[in-house]
Amino acid sequence: MDLVLHLADDYLLDKVWARLLPVNDHLVQPSYASLSTSANFTSIVYLQQSAWARDYIPRQIISLSVITLLGIHFLYFLFAWLSYKFIFNHEMMRHPRFLENQVKQEIQCSLRAFPAMTLLTLPWFQAEVMGYSKLYDNVEDYGWAYFALSVPFFLLFTDYGIYWVHRLLHHPNIYKTFHKPHHKWIIPTPFASHAFHPVDGYLQSVPYHLFIFLFPLHRWLYLGLFVFVNFWSILIHDSDMVTGHALEKVINGPAHHTLHHLYFTVNYGQYFTWADRVGGSYRQPESSLDPMLEIKKNS
User: Fold this and answer.
1) Cβ contact 230:75 at 8 Å
2) How many angstroms separate the first and last alpha carbons of the chain?
């Protein structure tokens, strides 16, 4: 998020903050740009500046909040709409356990969750902006081999972390309060991907944030992976039960997650099946478990 904030400051927010909270009027000069280099970034510096400098924490928190809210809304509606339009089988909406006005309810639940999830996530983003993470800029710092291997390492680490967070959320003492709202959607659509209780959504995101404070990761690669995990979370909620493909015993795909929503206590993983296999919670997708069969039976 430090990269996103830096780019936003360069191309928009410096001007916005200078207009909202300018330096004392007699110091304000005509606005034009020059370049300045910091430890991590080359910045565009406008001579007409704000009384709140880039490193002023209240400014950073407000900017991060706005960027995060706009970003999650954009990613959610873009990827969920694309999946809903081109991948999701709309015949699933005829399933007897598909709720009335369910898509509208999923969207409303997601929109209610976003502000609180953003607030809970801000300390991670703020720590990242303040330089406490292990994000780096130059591939040469760790080499191309580490750069390439950090992708599967990130996915394996976060997958295992999410597995245990997700499984904990199914504990009877906390399930009803925090995770049951997401299981309202027995036959989910892509719009259910972010339809969580805010604490649920936040807890399942913690491994993503934790990783960069424990292990080095290239800054641009992290941004790309962050977009990917949002896309993947949406993709696995399309109720697809395509089975028999070569990777279904390795990749925790839409069919696996469909079974999780149908049977609750199986397939807690996010990307891979190995954690469920080790934890004894794996259930193999089979064509006989396809919820479409119930639709056809009732037709």
Assistant:
1) yes
2) 49
Identify which of 272, 247, 115 has the alpha carbon closest to the alpha carbon of residue 194.
115
Strand partners, 33: 46
Give the tokens for residue 169. Answer: 């959320």
Q: How far is CA 268 from CA 71, 120, 161, 207, in A?
A: 26, 23, 11, 15
pLDDT by residue (tens digit) across 62-83? 999 999 999 999 999 999 999 9
pTM of the predicted model as reported, rounded to 2 decimal places: 0.87
Helices in the chain by DSSP H: which ranges? 2-8, 14-20, 57-86, 102-129, 143-169, 172-174, 198-214, 219-235, 254-263, 274-279, 292-298
Decide the pairing of beta strands 217-218 and 135-136: parallel
Of 109, 124, 272, which is closest to residue 205 (Cα–Cα)? 124
Rounded to 5°, the CA angle 46-51-53 comes to 65
Check residue 180 and give its pLDDT: 96
234 vs 224: CA distance, rounded Å? 16
Q: List pLDDT tens digits, range 255-285.
A: 999 999 999 999 999 999 999 999 999 999 9
Q: What is the DSSP string of 19-31?
A: HHSBS-GGG----
| 272 bridge partner residues | 251
Backbone angles phi, psi at 225, to 5 degrees: -65, -35
Question: What value, to the nearest 5°, has the Cα angle with vertex 188 and ends 187 and 193?
Answer: 160
- Rounded distance between C-alpha atoms, residue 84 and residue 107, angstroms: 12
Tell me the three state secondary structure of residue 272: strand
